[in-house]
Specification:
Blueprint (H helix, E strand, L loop, with lengths): L2 H5 L3 E7 L2 E8 L6 E5 L13 H6 L3 E5 L17 H14 L5 E6 L1 H12 L4 E7 L9 H23 L3 H11 L8 H11 L2 H14 L11 H5 L5 E6 L7 H10 L4 E5 L6 H4 L1 H13 L2
Parallel strand pairs: 3-4, 3-5, 5-6, 6-7, 7-8
Antiparallel strand pairs: 1-2, 2-4
Amino acid sequence: MSFWIDALGTSVTYHDAGGIRTRAIEAGPADGEVVVMMHGLSGHAEGFVRNVRAFGEAGYRVYAIDAIGHGFSDKPADATYHSPLFERHLLDFLDAVGAERAHLIGQSLGAWTGWRVALSHPERVRSLISATGAGILLSDAASQAESQAIHRKVAAVTNKALEAPTRERVRARLEFLMATPESVPDELVDTRWTIFNLPDSRRSMAKMTSEQTGEENRANLLREEDLARTRVPTLLVWTDLNPTVPAATAEKAAKLVPGARFELIEQAGHWPQFEQPEAFNRIALDFIGSN
């Protein structure tokens, strides 16, 4: 079945977020509590194509967005793609849609962005869900080494797809994210291949990837003291087959966050919301419904 069947009833819209033209897949009643879904590095809103309608039908006003530098959103060539840029874009997007507060659901880079906003502007965040979230750095030596290795691995597989974005290389990048190759439909490959070959993508995305995964941006990682001072309701959703941060690390991190919950989804890789949408939607809707 086409994944666009899951998106029937949603809308593709564009918003001016602080001067950045920002694409969103959105659904739900205008007066519903706002939910913003944020993809990972080199991703796009279609990472949540199997979730938006379910949240809209549950009564939320939901937006799956293309982050700055990604998808069909603007990709300024002169920007420095460190965490503060993504944080500012998210806050500007909340302003653009008139959301004083929102539930933030981030996957990988999107979770890192959402968590930084939860720390800097907790008054804007109703709840936070980190799905296989990037950016967590525990203090023990093994976790420190693991974090460095993950950054290098993610940069390598992403840059390989970007430097010569054939369908074969794009498929390899997507298969890296999934538990099984069969989880990557051809239309997802075609969607990302189209995005990677946009003129502004060719100009800016390699720079964005290099800067986002670079050493200077590691100053913005979420350290143990950041986890401990988190004051918004927080859920960490992980998987048994995540190719980046292992579930054991995420479970340790969850114990440092006051009142946080940890949930494990099995038979999924880096995209639990795409590979196991029914389980993800059930867990996430239960969590935000209680906050």
